[in-house]
Specification:
The complex is a heterodimer.
Chain A (H helix, E strand, L loop, with lengths): L15 H5 L5 H20 L4 H26 L7 H19 L4 H4 L2 H20 L7 H21 L9 E2 L4 E2 L2 E2 L2 H27 L2 H11 L1 H6 L4 H27 L1 E2 L6 H14 L6 H24 L8 H20 L4 H14 L5
Antiparallel strand pairs in A: 1-4, 2-3
Helix pairs in contact in A: 2-8, 3-8, 3-11, 3-12, 3-13, 4-6, 4-7, 4-11, 6-11, 8-9, 8-11, 12-13, 12-14, 13-14
Chain B lengths: L3 E10 L2 E11 L4 E5 L6 H9 L6 E6 L4 E2 L5 H7 L1 E4 L11 H7 L9 H6 L2 H20 L15 H14 L4 E5 L7 H18 L2 E5 L3 H7 L2 E6 L2 E6 L1 H6 L1 H10 L1
Parallel strand pairs in B: 3-8, 3-9, 6-7, 7-8
Antiparallel strand pairs in B: 1-2, 1-4, 4-5, 9-10
Helix pairs in contact in B: 3-6
Classes of the chains: A mainly alpha, B alpha/beta.
Bound molecules: adenosine-5'-triphosphate and magnesium ion.
Adenosine-5'-triphosphate (ATP) binds next to helix 1 of chain B.
Chain lengths: 364, 255
Amino acid sequence: MSANRWLTTGNYFTSYQDEQRIFSTRLDKLIFIGFIVCLFAWPLLIKLSNRNMLVLDTILIAIVAVLGLNLLTGFAGLISIGHAAFVGVGAYTVASIIRLIGDDHVLVTHAWPLVIIVAGLVGAVVGAFVGLPALRLRHLYLLMATLSFQIIFQWIINFSTFFNQGQTISVGRVFWFTGKIVRKQHYVFWYYVILVAIVLLGLGVRNLLRTRYGRSLVAVRDNDRAADAMGMHPGLTKVYAFGLAGFLAGIAGALHAYLYRGVGFESFTLHHSIVYLAMAIVGGMGTLSGSFWGPAAIQFLELRVEDLAEKAGHYFPSNMNLSTALRPLTFGLVIVLFLMFEPRGIANWWRIVRSYVKLWPFRY
Amino acid sequence: MPLLTVSNVTLSFGGLNALSGVNMNINPGLITSVIGPNGAGKTSILNCISGFYHPTSGDIQFGEHKLSISSFSPHQVSNLGIARAFQNLELFSGLSVLDNLLLARHQNLNYNFLQAVFYFGKASRVEAENRAYVEEVIDFMELEPFRHQIVGNLAYGIQKRVEVARALTLAPQLLLLDEPMAGMNIEEKEDMVRFIVDIRQDRDVTVVLIEHDLGVVMDISDHIYVLDFGELIGAGTPDEVSQNPKVIEAYIGEE
Ligand SMILES: Nc1ncnc2c1ncn2[C@@H]1O[C@H](COP(=O)(O)OP(=O)(O)OP(=O)(O)O)[C@@H](O)[C@H]1O
Ligand SMILES: [Mg+2]
């Protein structure tokens, strides 16, 4: 077990359990642990402004959401254009709890990890429910089901007084063992919470993917007749995929609610659903690492577009809102370009870099 | 007592009868072949048995208890111990040979969702046990060199073999093979014949074989059914069938 995957000699396993491991060598595991430690340690040394910290936190939340979308669309092959609504379900679960018991109830301020998990579970149930048409429908029809859900979701939020008609429902500050999390600590605190969530969820998903619960997703994507012949219920497997996506989206939504200290409908629109899809495509459908690259790349792009719009704004009449026009344009363009030239997403560049390192100094 | 009984099965698509009143008995431990010209209804009868089609009328019964399976879904049939290899490849083409075969162990991977998420002892152990089973089938079907290759990239003959291997990995009592040698060269065909004979002998699996190559069929079958235009025109041992005037007519009439 001294060989490693960065070298061309390859690995030799002595048991099937060895081969199952996520990290095939000790070096891989060390690199991974070192990386995680760095992620936890750097905020102690470097202080980012609240604004930059917020951007970072937003990316991390998007990673959680895209992890779910990637399982659904990349692995199980079921396209969803209602993912933001699933995220919204998580956020509005938090909001509902607050509407019912108030935002200073200990459940919300102290037992917030529980609230987040509950939001995930509600997301899973709603996800599975929306996925029920998968028992009967396929492809485009199923996509329409997710679109309808997006629209119904927005409609319900906007018209019900319980949800404040889409206006912000505020979320109180939470407590940690050290006391109340004040404004100064807020963004760093949630950075840690989201990071822990990502590590746990990421490992959980990675585990799932090497078991029947992950393989069955890919099976219904590749060939659902064959999946049926192998003893899987293709319809139920798809419903399960929706539930899984709903769970991760729900968690992301709850984190979003706590991070922004409020829930309003404008964060969960069709536009956001399309952005999630863009993240999944750009990152790399059907690869775990794609769920990490995608949100980072798209968020970066979004910031650049805003800068550009601001600069260009000086040369155009002020009644033209450039950034609203530029955004859908850039996203559309990026999705199309990736689908045309790199359908395997950024994750594929990562793969290429790795295989290059592995063969170095030989060309091939 | 037959392992599988097909009684009076009729299957119609609109006005066309793909099968009309077909009766078959599949006896345990034997190789039973189904032959007939193109469009005779061979794949249709397999589809009825494996749950992809439901007979318009008639019944199909399986096992000691004569369980009626004619309204079952494919996954229910599969879980009873009836496996099938498709005529047109229906593999998980984006996955490796290993993953294709592991998918056939789906029902035997009896850990629950939480154990899978945490990859607890049981999940890991059961995965390893089933991996061992898959490896045994890989050995048996001589697929060792292709274990980690993506199925979609393999040569056609090898994909056909993976198709049979995957059905075998389900550990079935009854194996339905739909033209497993179609499009193969002589050498590959000989290998496949050897595999089929071994499957019956060493693994104690009952085989139903659809095949156009009459030489092969006469060689390895214990019993033969002959279909033409959805009707059974002959049945019996290879000798009986080859002397049946109706069968001779159907085959010569075809040429
Ligand atoms: N889904 C379907 N819809 C309509 N007709 C069908 C369908 N499936 C099969 N048929 C018809 O049923 C008849 C029997 O087809 P089947 O596929 O069973 O033939 P086969 O004996 O397997 O032929 P081959 O040797 O070419 O594989 C054909 O006339 C075919 O057109
Ligand atoms: Mg056929």
